[in-house]
Write a structure and sequence with these properties.
heterodimer, A: 376 residues, alpha/beta, 2 domains, 67% helix, B: alpha/beta, Rossmann fold, Alpha-Beta Plaits, 6-stranded mixed sheet, 14 strands, 36% helix
Chain lengths: 376, 317
């Protein structure tokens, strides 16, 4: 059996290495995406430009302002001197946020009344605006609590610790850097693209050129052909996966906390599914163009949108959450994040492993049945 | 001759309601060049694909090299070579790599592969171009390389599905010389074509139309059986008008345009010559030349298509 698989593997590797353009895409795409996600598409919001119009100009108002500027979230860019400047600030996109402290701020504040502060946020980037609004809210809240307790204690002439000392600590990704969260997702995404698209294209290309027919009249069995064709792509996909990890380490200090063996196993398991899906698509498509479109619709898009890679699943509408249940990348991603970020063992994600095994057997059986029926 | 190389009984292929091949039966002897003729869509390729195991048959049986196509497809595959009109080679591999790949999947050993590689390169006239990519080869060379790859494993039977499509006349002639050599060495060659001049190279011909065999025999037999009346080739002016006039005469059996001449079939040669000259002269058409010709397979083909039981159903390609 291996006697006939060997020439197929050799031929496939020759073809891959000769197709410079595809090879370049396969190598540079992960690097490009990683850098893009890591630097440009950073979902963290920091150093937000802010302009302040302080009508009150008292110690209290300055104190309030300082509580804002001491955080690394806001940078004071402009100190406004009239109401009329506010619109221009936002319209010309000089700042994201404008804070207006009214004249009676300290007066109301000190007399124990409700003091009002106006915060204007540029909502043209909705997701960023939400984050900014949340930060502002949190800062105002914490400032209020501090003032309230100070006031309370001063009146009684006492000192007292706050009953609850709220010091949040984020585990697994202490700096809350989204790039760390993105690297496992990127691995899943790129593996899907490489495995699904390249297998389906390589099979369909043989159909288009008629070489498939030439192989089918030879004593090569379909299973030998499939093994011979997929082995090179398994290696290439693994190479890509480890390249992403390497770049992740070099550029973003992402280290694999868990077991390397488990990481390898789960990646191989996912490749089994992705290659099966690629084969299945090649039984549906007769041209490379159709194969590419099907791979995009059923491979790339769900992995990007529905796996939890970019958009958290728990924020999705219920119906969409149900759909994500049949996206294998979702389970792969949970396992990957567990291994890479948390360093947890298989006990934490064995559900996912079971699902991936079931899905892998199903998709491969399905494509096998279709292949036999169509004789490829 | 002992048992035939190919033996087909009532082979049928249906695609839903459409019957592509209808109860076809024939035998091909060992070492024969067997020409399978028919218009496009007549069922040639469907038959060849069933015999090679690329397509399952709806009913009927066939043995190829002594093995049943439905029961022992693996044995069949090991004993046949197949080449289609697409010249299915890997464009992005070199001549040598293509040969090595096909040799590899047929399980050729290293020493044997080396010997066959030299043979194919020599046969296809590709000496010195072993490292060129297949995509860079012109039609004729590509065709011979494809043939070489199909017969690397020295199959007993070679199936050629319209092997000369899109190839220049000189290459076509060279190709047929190769086919003749193969046949001399004892290989059975099963070839489909719609070039009727090529069919003259075949030892035996089978004519298929609308999925049914309508005639068979050697080219000579076919001509003698079906064309009993003399055929006169007439060179004259206003050919189309002349044809229309002659078609109306009840003493003319058949008349068709062949290029710029007319082929007219009559019951008696000398009487026919006289009547044609006279009839055309009455219509102010002057005859420049008139010769009795040996009928070509094209004459036979057209005769059979028009007289055939399914006449008019198949489009002549």
């Amino acid at each position: 059996m291996f006697k006939r698989i060997k020439p197929i593997i050799k031929k496939e590797i020759r073809q891959i290495s000769r197709d410079r353009r595809t090879l370049a895409v396969l190598i540079f795409q992960p690097v490009f995406l990683l850098v893009m996600f890591g630097y440009a598409l950073n979902f963290d919001v920091r150093h937000i430009a802010i302009a302040v119009y302080d009508e009150d100009k008292t110690e209290a108002s300055r104190d309030f302002l300082n509580s804002f500027l001491h955080s690394e979230y806001f940078d004071l860019k402009y100190y406004l001197s009239s109401q009329s400047e506010i619109n221009a600030m936002l319209d010309e996109r000089k700042v994201w946020v404008v804070m207006v402290i009214p004249k009676n701020f300290s007066q109301k504040f000190l007399s124990g009344q409700e003091a009002k502060v106006q915060i204007l946020v540029d909502g043209s980037n909705a997701s960023q605006a939400t984050t900014v609004a949340a930060y502002t809210n949190a800062l105002v809240q914490s400032y209020s609590i501090k003032v309230l307790s100070d006031l309370f204690l001063r009146k009684r002439g006492m000192t007292l610790a706050l009953p609850v000392d709220f010091r949040p600590r984020v585990w697994y990704n202490p700096e809350l850097k989204s790039v760390k969260f993105l690297i496992p997702g990127l691995m899943a995404f790129i593996l899907t693209i490489t495995a699904v698209i390249s297998t389906s294209l390589s099979v369909v290309r043989e159909k288009e050129r008629g070489t498939m027919e030439q192989i089918m009249v030879s004593p090569v069995k379909p299973v030998e052909l499939i093994i011979g064709k997929t082995i090179p792509y398994v290696f290439m996909s693994l190479l890509t996966a480890y390249m992403i990890l390497g770049i992740g380490y070099l550029l973003f200090d992402v280290v694999v906390k868990g077991s390397q063996f488990q990481l390898f196993f789960i990646t191989l398991l996912y490749l089994f599914i992705a290659l099966g899906a690629g084969l299945f698509i090649s039984t549906l498509a007769d041209t490379q163009q159709v194969a590419f479109q099907l791979s995009t619709i059923f491979g790339m898009l769900p992995t990007f949108l529905l796996s939890g890679f970019v958009f958290p699943i728990r924020n999705m509408p219920f119906a969409i959450q149900l759909v994500t249940m049949i996206v294998p990348a979702r389970y792969f991603l949970v396992a990957l994040r567990s291994i890479i970020l948390k360093g947890s063992g298989i006990g934490a994600f064995w559900h996912q492993v079971v699902f991936l095994i079931v899905f892998g057997i199903l998709i491969n059986a399905l494509s096998w049945v279709r292949m036999r029926k169509k004789r490829l | 001759m002992s048992e035939p190389a190919i033996s087909v009984h009532n082979l049928t292929k249906k695609f839903h309601d459409f019957v592509a091949v209808n109860k076809v039966s024939f035998e091909v002897g060992k070492g024969e060049i067997f020409g399978f003729l028919g218009a496009n869509g007549a069922g040639k390729s469907t038959t060849i694909r069933m015999l090679c195991g690329l397509l399952s048959s709806t009913s009927g049986t066939a043995t190829v090299a002594g093995y049943d196509i439905n029961e022992q497809p693996e044995k069949v595959k090991a004993n046949i070579g197949y080449m289609s009109q697409k010249f299915s080679l890997y464009d992005d591999l070199t001549v040598r790599e293509n040969i090595r790949f096909f040799g590899g999947i047929y399980g050729l050993r290293r020493a044997e592969l080396k010997e066959r590689l030299d043979w194919v390169v020599e046969m296809a006239g590709l000496k010195g171009r072993e490292d060129s990519l297949a995509v860079e080869l012109a039609g004729g060379w590509k065709q011979r390389l494809a043939l070489g790859c199909a017969i690397l494993h020295r199959p007993k039977i070679v199936f050629l599905d319209e092997p000369t499509g899109g190839v220049d006349p000189v290459s076509r002639r060279n190709f047929w010389e190769l086919i003749n050599k193969l046949s001399e060495q004892g290989t059975t060659v099963f070839v489909t074509t719609h070039y009727l001049d090529e069919a003259e190279y075949a030892n035996r011909i089978m004519l298929i139309q609308a999925g049914e065999i309508i005639a068979g025999g050697s080219p000579k037999e076919l001509k003698e059986t079906h064309i009993k009346n003399p055929i006169l080739e007439v060179e004259c002016d206003k050919v189309v008008m002349a044809m229309e006039i002659l078609q109306r005469q009840d003493w003319v059996i058949e008349t068709t345009i062949f290029g710029t001449y007319l082929h007219t079939s009559v019951a008696d040669e000398s009487e026919g010559r006289e009547r044609i000259r006279q009839t055309l002269a009455e219509n102010n058409i002057s005859v420049k030349r008139m010769d009795r010709i040996v009928p070509s397979l094209e004459d036979v083909f057209i005769y059979l298509i028009e007289k055939g039981p399914q006449a008019g159903k198949a489009q002549v390609g």
